[in-house]
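hey team, just a heads up i'm posting the complex here instead of the shared drive bc the drive is being weird again. everything in one block, sequence lines first with there labels, then the predicted structure for the whole assembly after. its two chains so it's a bit long, scroll down
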Amino acid sequence: MPPFPLDLIGLLTKPGAYLVYALIGFGFGYALEISGFAISSKLAAQFYFKDMTVLKVMFTAIVVAMVLIFGATALGLLDYNLIWVNPTYLWPGIVGGLIMGVGFIVGGFCPGTSLVALSTFKLDGLFFTLGGLFGIFLFGETVEYFDEFWHSSYMGRFTLPELFNTSYGVVIVGVVLMALFMFWGAEQLEHIFGKKDLKTEPRRRYTGAVALLAVALLVAFIGQPTTQSRWVKIASAKEALLKERTVQIHPAELLSLVHDHHINVILLDMRSEADYNLFHIDGSQRHDPGTASELVPDLRLEPANTVIVTISNDEGAATDAWKDLTAESIQNVYILEGGLNNWLATYAHEDESLIPNPATGNDQLRFIFPAALGSRYNFSDPDPEEFEVEFTPKVQLQTKRGATSGGCG
Amino acid sequence: MTTVTETQEPKRGLTLPKFLTSRPTRPYVHPYLGGALLGVVLFLAFFLTGNGLGASGGLNRFIVFFQDLIAPDHVDITPYLITMAGGDLNPLDNWIIPMIIGTLFGGFFSGWRNGRLKIETNKGPQISTKSRWAFAFIGGAIMGYGARFARGCTSGQALSGGAVLSVGSWFFMFAVFAGGYALAYFVRKLWN
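-- predicted structure starts here --
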C-alpha cells in the first residue's frame, strides 16, 4: 500500500495531526496573501478583465497540484483511493456556484480570501466574513425546505476521466493545455482591457509552462497503477492473511454482524445471476465475478463502521473480490468462510426440500433448490437466537485511513 | 518623577502598532508564482492528510458551535446541524478548524512581513466606505449561503476538487465564474 496520505491521528495523535493541518492552513493563508488576495478591488477586477490575477493564481494552483498529485500516485507514493474527491451533486453544485459568483462580485471576496483580508486588517474583509457567517447560518436553517433538490443528481465519486471515458494521463495533459490556453487568453484580455504592457511580463513564465507540460506528459507516460499492479505490490503480505485464514469469517459471525446495529455490513455476492436468483443471503447485492474493483468509488464513501463481506458458493470468486478490494485500499473486507455451501450446511441442514448435490465442481452450489426464491427462503435470514453456533470472531474494525470527509469539513 | 516616565514613554520605541507596520511595503508576487506556491501547499495537503484545503466549512462549524451553545435542542432536531453538533459532538473538533486558524495566521504573517498590514477598506472610487461595508456584508451572506449550497467554497470545491479531477467541482467552478460575469456589468459602479 502506498505510504501516503499518512494516518495522521494514528501517528501523531489528534493534537499533532491538528498541528499539521494548522501548518498547511498557514501556507494557504501565506500563499493567498502574497498573491494579493486580501484586496477586494483586485479580486473584483477579474470580472472586468482588467486584472486576471484570480484566474491565473487559481488555475496555476490547480494544475501544479494536479500534476504533483497524479505524479505521486503514478510513482506509487500516494494512494488516490485514500484522498478526498468531492462527491458530485451536479445541480446543487451548479446552483450554489452561480449564487457564489453573485456573492463574489457583490462582496468582493470568497470565504478563503476574506479570512486573509480580515487577518491583514481590511475592514471590508471583516464585514464580508460577518456576512458569510450569517449566510451560512441562514443556509443551515433553510436547507430543510429544499432538501430533496440539495441531495439530487448525486453521482458519488465521479472523476473527469470517468466522464470522458479516457485515461487519467489524457485528462491531465488536456487540463494543462487548457490552462495554458486560458493564461494566454487572460494576458490578451489584460492587454486590451487593463492596458497592461505584456512585454514587461517575465520571460521565465514560458520556461514554467514548458516544464509543467513536460511533467504532465511524463505523468501520462508512466500511467496510473491498476488494481492488478497494486495487488502485486502487496501480494506477499496479504497472501499470508489468506493462508492463515484470518480474513475468512464463519457464517455465524456473519450472521451476528448483520444483526449488530453498530455495524454497517455490506454483503457482496460475487456469483452468476442464476445462482443469485436461486438463493442468496438477505440484503446481499450481486455483482459479476471479477468486477469488484468497479465498486471501489462507492465503497470509499461508506462510513467508518463498515464491514464488507464477499460471498461466493465456495471461496473462489469471493477471494478474488477480496484481493481486488484490498489492493484498492478498502478496509475491513472479509470472506464468508466456505461460502454459501458452508452457510447452507450451517443453517439449512434441517430443510428437507434442499437436496445435497456433492458432485458439482469447485465454487458451485452443492444443493439443489426446489424453486428460485432468492432471499425468500427462511435460511436467507435465520434468527441468530435460534441457532447457537460457536465461532471464533475474526473481524477487527480498522479505523479508516485517509480522508473521510473533506472539501470543507 | 512622573514627568520623567511620561517623556520616556514614546522613546521606548517599538509599540505594537508600530511594530506591525514597521516593515517596508513590498509588491505582490507574480500571479503564476503565487499560484505555483498555492499549488504546492494544496498538493502537500492532499499528500500528507488526504484532505484538500477549505474555509467555509470551518466558518460553518463556528456558527454551529454558537448555535449549539444557545439552542442545543434545536440543533438536535435539524438534520443538517446534527452531523456537526448533535448530542455530544463538538463542532470545533475537526481538522478544518486548525486549518482556518492557520490560514488567519499565515495571512497575518505574510501581511506583516511584506508591510501590508493596514486598517483600510478597498473599494471602487464611486461608492462610499459605508456602502462598501454594507455590500461586503450582503455579498458575504450570499457567498456563505451559496458555499454551503454547493458543499464547499472556492477553496474546498474549486481548488481542491479541481486538482483531483472531480466532475462536480469543475462544473461548480465554471458556475462561479458564470455567476460573477453575468452580474458584473450591473454592479460595475461598485468597482469602477
